[in-house]
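Let us work through a complete example step by step.
Step 1: write down the sequence.
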Amino acid sequence: MLNDDLIDDDPLRFPLSTAYTFDRNECDNIISKVKFNNITASEKRLVKVFEDLNKLTDMQRVAITPEYLDLKLEELSLKYEFEQKKQEEKEEQQTIKEQMREEARALKELEKAKEKVEKEEKHFSQAIEKMNLQLQKANSEEQQKLLDKLRELEAQLELTKRNKEDVINRVQNTRAGYVYIISNIGSFGDSVYKIGMTRRLEPLDRVKELGNASVPFTFDVHAMIFSEDAPALESALHRALSDKKGNKVNDRKEFFRVDLKEIEELVKRNHNKTVEFTKLAEAEEFRKSVEMANHSLHSVS
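Step 2: predict the structure and record it as tokens.
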């Protein structure tokens, strides 16, 4: 650990104090504070302490060996890997909890929609039954008006039944949902798209939530794709764009740096229905903010 060819006075004082300072006071402190996001700074601090202590004891020809520094850097690296794993597990748990909350919100919305459509179905059925009774008692002149109203009610009932079937299908098919392609130029720049999915009855509610507090500007929707197997479609797009991920470390991040045309082509290959894409991001808040900033600069100049 130490080179001590020549030591003045006490032959043990310098090596022991240097070793203790480096090992206990400095290394332990740096290693204990390393986190998933500060490994580079921690390595630099460790090397700097190594160099500074060796400069202080240079006159006594006492030095901490590079081999010992390497051991400490390895220890630091192991602690960093441990902290990184802890962070990944924490993020995974957060993702799972968010997915559970999202699923609960979606199910609540669907159950509420089911109750509403069942109530509407009952209302129209009763109205039709009442109308038929009125028809039996009506004269010929009144009958025509009642028949027109009856046809209208029957059409509304038919539409309600179709809506009910759709809602029940969504409740029963837990994989049915929407895959969304959204962007946020003001927050992430051009050609960066988030590809995610939601089972919400109103998928735009999910997009609004994503743009509420975590980013300075709202998201623009480029495509909203309904699929009977939304998780499969989302996974297929993610796999195809894996080399375009903005975050190469965390697979749970859903941002991709890619041309929108490429996403559109992938959707066509993996989805059997026509999907309408919005090419240009409106980015209204961002563009207005840029205009206001430019106006302020011109006013000052």
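Step 3: interpret the result. DSSP finds nine helices and six strands in the chain.
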